[in-house]
Amino acid sequence: MIDTLKRIWNIPELRKSVLFVVGVLAFFRVIAHIPIPGVDATVLRQFFEQNQVLGLLNIFSGGTIAQFSVVALGVAPYITASIIFQLLGMIFPALDELQKEGEFGKQKINRWTRWLTIPLSLLQSYGLIALLKSSGPLAARGEVLSTPLEMVLAMTTMTAGTVFLMWLGELISEKKIGNGMSLIIFAGIIASMPVSLTQFLVTFDRSQLFTAILFVAIALLMVVGVVMINEAQRNIPIAHARQATQYSSVPGFSNHLPLRVNMAGVIPIIFAISVMLFPPMIARFFFNVRSIWLSDIAHWVVSIFNNQIFYSVAYFLLVFFFTFFYTSIVFQPEKIAENLQKQSAFIPGIRPGKPTAEYISQVTSRILLAGGLFLAVIAVLPHVLQQYSNSTQIAVGGTSFLIVVSVIIETVKQVESQLKTAEYDSYSKV
After folding, report:
1. 244-263 average pLDDT score
2. Is 294:347 a contact under the CB 8 Å cutoff?
3. Cβ-Cβ contacts under 8 Å for 339 (sequence gap 6 or more)
4. Cα(276)–Cα(82) distance, rounded to whole angstroms?
């Protein structure tokens, strides 16, 4: 660990990138404590701790909703916009083709995603305020955010905060030492851990001993499981054809094509949480409508998502689905087969071109089946064990821990890649 830090410090460009990311995350934590006026942060935090869905929403925002800060929505609207465009790619062939056009298509979709983030931020900010005014800490203080002007100012402030965090996240991603949006969520979770641990120790008694042991066991199991699934890979043998020239014949050589079991990283977890939070949040808008049947449906949606069995099953299926879905977007067997053919390389026993792409796709589907199931089991494990402990903190804390471990592994891999690139460049110059 110390040797790695020394290597990072000795490479000026990498050192600047790491210090920049740390500085941006520190700045994010500063603005996360700038509250919108008129809200008691202590009462608000207790309100979120008593509700599992809202607790997950607070985690997803990076811990900013509990503070009701100017960046209360976090990067959730941006991630929701990303999910919408990726789902639309499955419906509209033109958008699917654009997603496959490399850097040009990626930049165009990213621009549309940024634009969609703004109306989604306005919608989610209004939903959050309406939720807190109807059943939360703002309900007891009717004078808070009661006028249209105050509502518009609060919504505009939170939307501007989301756009600002979106910009910071993209700046972090450009440094290529971690996904910016994931690191922002990671920073919020890490910042809330000391407070949560202190509160647990202050209120700890013997009746909570079993819960504490259970949480530690889950944490260790999740660390081992996430590391295993992130490090596991399937190596497909690759052979290079013998290259003959006028004067000599260069013998062929062989290596392998590594296929990771979990190519999507932490993205399936974040996407699944985003989708799980959306229906009950929208349903709360219709609690007090005049139409009785619509109000009944809204209450039914909230109650069904509060049901632990339904929530666990839906969460499991979503994590499994997004593991396949996101991988199908970022991993393209056709391009790999094309690159192999251009390099005069081939998979032994498989013809170049389309048969190679089909073979790689089949292998990827098989390893993703195991990887997706394993990741979904790890994700839903805290929710299952919650039934035996009757503690929402296990489910919320388990999800937080899963995100933290996944982000750390992903960031470490990118830092190691940057180290190898920088050391290779310095060696080449010598």
Report:
1. 62
2. no
3. none
4. 15
**Entry field: residues in the chain:** 430
Burial of 394 (0-12, 13-18, 19+ CB in 10 A): buried
Residue ranges per domain, the chain?
11-429
Nearest to residue 192, comparing CAs of 372, 69, 314?
69
Q: Calculate the alpha carbon distances from 162 to 101, 114, 118, 158, 272 in Å.
A: 28, 10, 8, 6, 20
Structure confidence by residue, pLDDT tens digits, 131-179 = 776 655 555 555 556 677 878 888 898 899 999 999 998 898 888 887 8
Q: What are phi and psi of 258, to 5 degrees?
A: -80, 130
Span 11-429: which CATH code? 1.10.3370.10
Q: Could you give the CA distance from residue 198 to residue 282 in angstroms, rounded to a whole number? A: 34
Sequence-distant (≥ 6) Cβ neighbours of residue 290 within 8 angstroms: none
* 111 Cβ neighbours under 8 A, 6+ residues apart: none
The model's pTM is 0.73
Are 70 and 302 within 8 A, CB to CB? no
